[in-house]
Amino acid sequence: MSALEASKEYGRRGLRVFRSFLNAVKVKINDVEVGLTISPEVGTADSGDIESDLPDLMLAIGQAAKAARRPVDELQYLSESEFSALIMSIHKLNQSSLPVILVGAGLPQILGLAGTSKSYAERLFKFPEIGALDESDAINAIVNPAREEGVTIERAAVAQILTLTERYPYFLQQWAHEAWNVAEGNQIRAKDVLLAHNNAIAVLDEGFFKVRFDRCTPSERKYMRALAELGSGVQRSGDIAQLLKVKTASVAPTRSSLIKKGMIYSPSHGDTVFTVPLFDQYMKRAIPKMA
């Protein structure tokens, strides 16, 4: 934005404030410290307190955005302290009527985290629930792109894909892709979906699921295997502990760690469920028998 005539000064000041912020809050990427050669804005965003400095930085960005008449988008996955600082920043920006919008995604407990961090968070943000596509959107996601390529899909084939994927967006793409690969001609039939099923599962097992599995410790995998043993959907944390033959309190740290890693979440107190569908089936393939 510093290259735009209308916002040159605001853009340059934003960079100076960012330089001050980097001095106070060290930023490293793969052990490489990030910095700017521009001189800092002394006295602004340089206290070392993120809850004080981040709002100042965001204000500088907002002022540059306002002058440039361009949006600034932020997408973050934050710790509790960082989330608190960001909420304070957005609150300060709202008070100054500056054009900065935050669009973020998180598991359902993000709503509780927002309220815990700052009591006024509920007034600052809207929290729409994003889950599986509804049936009409899921059908359109499969049928419309195929139609644009001159391909038709049998109604029975579409219904099978919706059932197998539980209408999870990424899975819809994978199953439709694999079905098209095995189909003959310009029509995808129900038999093609069945034939492609193992291919889709194999791809997910080697990539989508395995990446998540590999991030977990042996004790975390054992907990997830017990959760999978109870079946798909929401399960009581006490039932998982009982299956593991331990007290609920003793596996609470493991459960908490899995929530932080995004493997599971708690839709309500004492309940536990996998964050993505079909992961319970993967756990049974990855660990056929419980230890």
Q: What does this 3D model show about the protein?
A:
- The chain folds into 3 domains: 5-124, no CATH class; 135-212, Helicase, Ruva Protein, domain 3 (Orthogonal Bundle), CATH 1.10.8; 216-286, Winged helix-like DNA-binding domain superfamily/Winged helix DNA-binding domain (Arc Repressor Mutant, subunit A).
- It is mainly alpha-helical and 291 residues long.
- The chain is globular and about 65 Å long.
- It has helices spanning 8-24, 50-68, 80-95, 110-117, 121-124, 135-148, 155-165, 169-182, 190-214, 218-229, 237-244, 248-260, 279-286; strands spanning 27-29, 32-34, 72-74, 100-102, 152-153, 187-188, 235-236, 264-265, 271-274.
- The model is unreliable at 72-76 (pLDDT under 50).
- It has a 3-stranded antiparallel sheet with strand order 7-9-8. It has a two-stranded antiparallel ribbon with strand order 1-2. The protein has a two-stranded parallel sheet with strand order 3-4.
- The chain starts with 7 loop residues before the first helix and ends in a 5-residue tail after the last helix.
